[in-house]
Design a protein that fits this description.
- The chain has 87 residues and is mainly α.
- It contains three helices and no strands.
- It has one domain.
Length: 87
Amino acid sequence: MTTTEKIAISLPIAVAQRVRRGVKRGLAPSVSAYVTRALEEQTKLDELSELLAEMLSETGGPLTKKERDAADRELGVSVKKPRARKQ
């Protein structure tokens, strides 16, 4: 069994409502489980971000725009350009 720790958090009302709706739809068995899953994903992203920063520092720094565009093409990433604002 996983050891747990009870903590209190404050959420914006709209976020709390969306979480409860997700639980009612069966996306998680409880609010705690829903929040746990979200925090697990965020911590993974944080760790990946740290790893990327470390790798970039060891290989000469961040990618140039040209390098990033080439990587996006290789990975099949579609980057949407922001629309011009109507005035």
